Amino acid sequence: MTNENSVQRMYIIFGAMLAVLIGMTGISYRTLSSLGSANQWNIHTYQVLTELQGVSNGLDNMQAGAQAFIATGDNDLYNIYLKGKDDLSRHYKTTLSLTTDNPRQQQRLKDFKSEVKNLFKFYVPVISKRRSPQTAAQAVALAAQQASDRESALAQLRSTLNDLRGEEQTLLTQRTQSEGSLERWAHITLIADSLLAIGLASVLSIFLVRSNTLLLETNEGLSKEISDRKKAEREIRDLHEYNEQILSSTAEGIIGVNPRGRITFANPAAAKMVGWDAQQVIGKPVDSILERDMPNATLSVTRDTPLSASMRDGRVHSMADGNFTRRDGGQFSVEYTITPLREESIENNEEVSTITGAVITFRDITVRKRTDMSLLRLASIVESSKDAILSHTLEGRIVSWNAAATKLYGYSPREVEGCSMSILFPQDRTEEVAYLLDKIKNGERIEPYQTMIQTRDGEPIEVALTLYPVRDDKGQVMGASSNARRIIRRRADEQLPVYLNELRLVKDSEQPGGNGQHTTEAPTGGAVVGS
C-alpha cells in the first residue's frame, strides 16, 4: 500500500510538472509568434518608408525636370519630368496598398494626392505651352507669374510627405522597442521550459523505478490474464462459427484447394452448383468437378492455368468467362476469382510467408449470358432494319439511332445524341412534337400516320411515323421508340395505305367547353410507302 501511495504521489507531481511545462510551452509559442509578427511589422514599416522615399525622389525629379524644361525647352529635361511623374505615381500606389491598416495614413495619402493634383494645375498648362515654339515665351512668362503659388503648393506637398514619413518612423521606433521586450521574454520562457523539461525527466526516471517495483508485486494478475485469454479463445471459436454461417448462406460458390489440387472445403452453394454433396466433394481433385475438356479454362495446379499462376506468384487471378463441369457431365458458364492463402512463420529470425492453398469464388452466369445474347440479337435486328428507328427520353432527347435513321435523316448518331427530336421536324410542326411527347408520357402508342420530317440538309420528306412507349422493369414509361418509313408519291390520285391515320392535335384550351375548338390534321394524298 505504501508503494501504491508513493506511485500516486509521483503521478500527481509528474502531472503537475507536465501541465506547467505545457503551459510554459504555450506561452513560449505565443511569444515567438508575437516576435515573428513584430519582426514582420518592422519589415513592413521599412517597406513603407522606402516607398515614401521613392515618392519624394519622384517629386524632386518631376519638379526639377519641369523647371529646367520650362527654362530651356530641352526634350531630355521633359523626359526627366515625365519619369519623375511616373515614379511618383508608382511609389504612391504601392504606399497606399501597404498602409490599408492605418486609416490616418490613408487619409494623409489622399490629401497628398489632392495636393499633387493642385501642383499639376501650375505645371500642366505651362509645360503644354512650352512644348510649342509659338507659345514658348508665353510659357516662360506664365511660369514666372505662378512661381509663388507653385512654390507654396510644393512646400505643402513636402510638409505632408514629411508627416507621412514621421508617422512611419514613430511606428518603427515603437515596434522596435516592443520587439526588444518580446525577445527578452522569449529568452526567459525558453530557459524556464528547459529547466522544467530537465525536472520532468528526473521525475519520470524515479517514477519508472517505483513502477517496476509495483509490477513485481502484482503477479497475481496473471491468473486474470489467463482467464481473459480463455475468454478470447471462446470468442475466436464463436467468430469461426459465425464465418461458417456466412459461407453457408452466401449465394456464391466458394471452394478451398490445397497446393496439391485437392479440395479442402466447399460451401453449400458451390456443392449445389456442381451437383455434389458438400462433404462428398472434400478430398477430391479439383479437376474432378471443374472443366477438363478445355485446357484454357481448366484450373488444374499441374498446368499453366490461373490456379497454378496464383499458387506460384501469390496474386489474385480472375476469369470473367469460364466453364465448370457438373457431376452429371453437363457444363455451365461461370466467372470466378482465385485468391491464394498464406501462412506466416518465423525461420532463422525472419518472417516467412508460405502459400498453403487457394480459395476459388465463382458464380453461375448462364442466365446472364443468355440475356446478353438476346440483347445482341435484338440490337442486330434494329441496326439491320430498313426502317429509321430511334429511341428518345420522355423529354424528347435522342438516345439511340440506327443506320437507316442516318440514311433517312442525314445525321450521324454522334451528331444527334442528346439532341431534341424537334430537329427532325419543320419549325411549323413544334405543336406536333409536344403532342407526341404528351401521348407517350401517358403510355399511349401512336399508330402509323403521315407527317413531314426535315433532313440534315433542310429537305422536307413525307414519312409514315409510328411511336411506341418504352417501359422499365416496373412498368413505368421511361421513353419511346420511333419508327419512320419514307412515303414516295407516285400519282396524285393514288390513295394512302389504309393503315395511315390522321394525327389530330387539339389544344386543351380549345377542347369542347373551352373558348373554341381547333383541330390540326396531317395532310393526306396519294402516296406509296417505300424504304
Average of the residue pLDDT scores: 78
Assign a percent range to the helix content.
40-55%
| Tally of strands | 13
Report the top-level CATH class of the largest domain: Mainly Alpha
Largest sheet report:
6 strands, antiparallel
Radius of gyration: 47 Å
**CATH topology of the largest domain, which one?**
A middle domain of Talin 1
Tally of contiguous helical segments:
12
Beta-strand residue percentage = 15-25%
Q: What global shape is seen? A: flat
The CATH architecture of the largest domain is: Up-down Bundle
Structure overview:
This protein has 531 residues and is of the alpha+beta class. It folds into four domains: 200 residues, A middle domain of Talin 1, CATH 1.20.1420; 26 residues; 119 residues, PAS domain (Beta-Lactamase); 145 residues, 2-Layer Sandwich (Beta-Lactamase). Helix content is 54%, strand content 19%. A hairpin with a 5-residue loop joins strand 1 and strand 2. Helix 1 packs antiparallel against helix 2 and helix 1 runs antiparallel to helix 5. The C terminus is likely disordered.
